[in-house]
Amino acid sequence: MFRRVSLRIAFAFILCATSAAAQKQIGVPFNLGVGESVLITDAGIRVGFDHVASESRCAIGVLCIWEGNATARVWGEVSPENRSNFDLNTNSQFQTEAIYLAFVIRLLGVAPYPEDGVIIDPDDYEVTMVVQRVSALPVNGRTWGAIKALYR
After folding, report:
1. Chain segment 76-112, per-residue pLDDT in tens
2. DSSP 8-state class, residue 64
3. 2 pLDDT exceeds 90?
4. How many CA atoms lie within 13 A of 137 on its CB side?
């Protein structure tokens, strides 16, 4: 009986520790590995990282004409049926953030950085992101629908 109780306590502790690690706050940067997601508790949305869709950053040890770009496929959802995918970029010449409902999902970085002659396993990528509240929404058809959804 004592063993059964201690196993339940240990399981509850692991469950709490795991769920706490998978929860973040608005405005606090966080890292995600391929296939991982977090709940932004004070926003009520889940944000995830699927994979790096393209990698063309100038590798360390190589002379390049331009800095290059890495594109990460990320997503936001309030429920699995309400998921939106975004391709966010490391190069500021391209889209580095996306508006999801009343929040901005911003890509801050992709690691590891490429090195000359080193092949990166696609499962080794990690992104750094932050979620913030939108200060002013540009109102268009899609955004207006998102605003209405917040008040239903």
Report:
1. 999 888 899 999 999 999 999 999 999 999 999 999 9
2. -
3. no
4. 18
In whole angstroms, give the CA distance from residue 110 to residue 108: 7
Query: How far is the first Cα of the chain from the last one, in angstroms, to the nearest whole number?
Result: 49
Query: Among 130, 149, 146, which Cα is nearest to 138's?
Result: 146
- Long-range contacts, stretch 96-100, CB < 8 angstroms, 24+ apart: 98/74, 99/134, 99/137, 99/143, 100/45, 100/76, 100/146
Q: Which amino acid is at 86?
A: F
Q: What is the pLDDT of residue 18?
A: 40
d(CA 131, CA 124): 23
